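User: Fold this; tokens only.

Assistant: Input:
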Amino acid sequence: MHNYTSTMPVQENTYALILAGGSGTRFWPLSRNSLPKQLLDLFGHGTLLEQTIRRLDGVVPLENILILTNEKQLDAVRTNATMIPAENIFAEPAKRDTGPAVALGVALVAARNPNALMMVLPSDQLIQDAAAFRSVMSDALAAAEMSDGLVTIGIQPTWPCPSYGYIERGEPASIPGLVCENPPHEVKRFREKPDPELAAQFLRQGGFSWNAGMFVWSLPTVIRQLNQHAPELGKFVAEIQQSPDIPTTIATRFATLPARSIDYALMESADRVLNIEATFDWDDVGSWISIAKYLGTHGDENRSNQTISELDSNNNIVFNALPGSHIALLGVSDLIVVQTKDALLVANRHQADAIKNLSPLLPEELL
């Protein structure tokens, strides 16, 4: 163990796995199965996937960034992430949740560098303070290198949200020689998505973070923990590492793995988990309601990405992705209106989360 200046990570030894699968149902009609949220330019600053890649500048070399998506989205991801070598973009051969997905990423990195430091990042979160993000991730890499812990990044809760998992933090972690701005804490336990009353209790009690699905570890540590606590995933990692034909091994073995989240499969039972609470802003932009706060205000709390005409209308969300068209509102409230070149959505904003339920009713060509 040695003193580690966490703002200067050993880049060539550092890898990132970006998870970029997922469906596009909550942002229909702008999103489709082949064009989910992370491939949309919702805020005029590039797609969420592009932003995720850009945030890693100075922390992970482009050639060490791996992207995992699915077959439907593979072409769109490659088109969107042209700065990443094509051989670093992989499609899962089956939908198997984040446990097998992360194990595949671990295996692919291990085949290149079995002693690497590695982070796992979702591609569909909005983080605007890139400097704070880099500082936190550099400290997480330092903690992972200098300890036997799996490091999680937590988000300080701003309200008792029942749809996130929670991380309960314990004492500050003792890691000899570690110097960092964002000190890690030991994790007492993971708490599943609570009901609103329990979530409110968590906030009153303090010491809880939202689980952002960001992980950092050294490969020797995570492989050891997989072998111990998720042996089917550990065996899969070993098979990929030793395979003379990695694509064939992935194609034949991946679909046989149990569909479990990485939290269930590993994190909740791992011997030592550390948590660093984020100092950066974070939004998982889970619905059109989340998008609204980043759009321009028009009239009485109407939010839109384009200029609209409105009269006696309030609290509406308008997103117009059809060039040359104009949207006008008259006497309406609490609507979500989304216009694309081939579809129009008009929804009650209080049912934003139910937009995904339209999928079975829509024509196949609009999915």
